[in-house]
């Protein structure tokens, strides 16, 4: 089972009965760092996967602001203090690592869809009893 599938199953285990849905995934490549994978799941929950062991860092929701030149920017703040900044005007992507406080320009791939999966709710009383 892939880490992306585990994330989507984890979201459903919180009690949601709808199919697991995601906006997709894309990779971010910043100089001097291994490529990171961003998974955008339902309800505004985002996950950043760090190689090599695909450590998962969560962010809930995004903030909207403007750069000094007036361009709109989307900011995704992760629980470890890192931030992903995306210029909505020209598509430029920057990553601010919490330990350095510096924003670094990063390349990014286009967003790819993730497959929808459906997990059935577990009901112990509906288990088959051995005869």
* Strand order in the largest sheet: 4-3-2-1-9-8-7-6-5
Mean pLDDT: 78
User: Biggest sheet, in brief?
Assistant: 9 strands, antiparallel
Helix segment count?
Answer: 1
Q: In sequence order, what are the helices and strands, one letter per element?
A: HEEEEEEEEE
In short:
The protein is mainly β and 131 residues long. It has one helix spanning 3-12, and strands spanning 22-30, 36-41, 45-50, 55-60, 63-66, 72-77, 83-87, 93-96, 103-108.
Can you describe what's shown?
The protein is mainly beta and 131 residues long. The chain has one domain (3-14, 22-114). It has one helix and nine strands. Strands 4-3-2-1-9-8-7-6-5 form a nine-stranded antiparallel sheet, with helices on one face. The model is unreliable at 15-20 (pLDDT under 50). Residues 118-131 have a biased composition (Basic and acidic residues). Residues 105-131 are annotated as: Disordered.
Write the layout of secondary structure elements.
Blueprint: H1 3-12, E1 22-30, E2 36-41, E3 45-50, E4 55-60, E5 63-66, E6 72-77, E7 83-87, E8 93-96, E9 103-108
Antiparallel strand pairs: 1-2, 1-9, 2-3, 3-4, 5-6, 6-7, 7-8, 8-9
Q: What characteristics describe this protein?
A:
131 residues, mainly beta, 1 helix, 9 strands, globular
């Amino acid at each position: 089972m892939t880490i992306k599938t585990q994330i989507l199953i984890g979201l459903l285990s919180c009690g949601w009965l709808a199919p697991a849905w995601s906006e997709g995934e894309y990779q971010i490549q910043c100089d001097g760092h291994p490529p990171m994978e961003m998974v955008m799941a339902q309800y505004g929950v985002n996950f950043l996967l760090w190689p090599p062991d695909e450590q998962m860092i969560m962010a809930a929701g995004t903030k909207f602001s403007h750069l000094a030149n007036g361009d709109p920017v989307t900011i995704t703040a992760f629980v470890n203090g890192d931030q992903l900044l995306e210029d909505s005007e020209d598509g430029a992507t920057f990553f601010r690592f919490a330990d350095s406080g510096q924003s670094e320009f990063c390349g990014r791939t286009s967003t790819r869809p993730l497959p929808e999966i459906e997990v059935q709710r577990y009901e112990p009383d509906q288990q088959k009893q051995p005869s």
